[in-house]
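To: structure desk
From: M.T.
Subject: fold request, one chain
Message: Could you run this one when you get a chance? Sequence is below, nothing fancy, just the single chain.
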Amino acid sequence: MTKDRAASLLFLLTGFYGFFFSVQLPMGRWNEPGPGVFPITLSGLLLLSGAAWFIRGKRRAGETAEGEKAGWYAIVRNFSTPIKIVVLTALLILAFNRVGYLVGSSLYLFALLFWVSRYRLIYSIGIAVVIGVGSWYFFAKVLAVQLPAGLLSF
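Reply: Done. Structure tokens follow.
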């Protein structure tokens, strides 16, 4: 079994699991959707993508079974990006109330762009500031959501 087919089976199992439990939630009406609409839609998309991935997941020309085996170094290297994202997200969660939404979200985006995605420094700073300030303005001023002020509580 190839990696593609194994991953597609994981998608299919997750989709079936979500579908089984989401059909028990009330769907509501078209103008007032209930709490079951989002999970059933998501599980349906997982089922569709898993099925498509399983069908497409044939062995490619020239690919050998030995090429699919990876050493420990390759496995750790493949997981370095997800580990970085989990660490950054955990740090944001721990420091969110202390530093506030504006500073926390901007620093989080900067770290994701610069450290994880390897954007250049000036682009990372610019994009992080624009998205951080823009999202703060949208949530705090337009939607009037109470956000933690943190360091900028003066």
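Reply (cont.): Residues 121-142 form the longest helix (22 residues). Let me know if you need anything else for the meeting.
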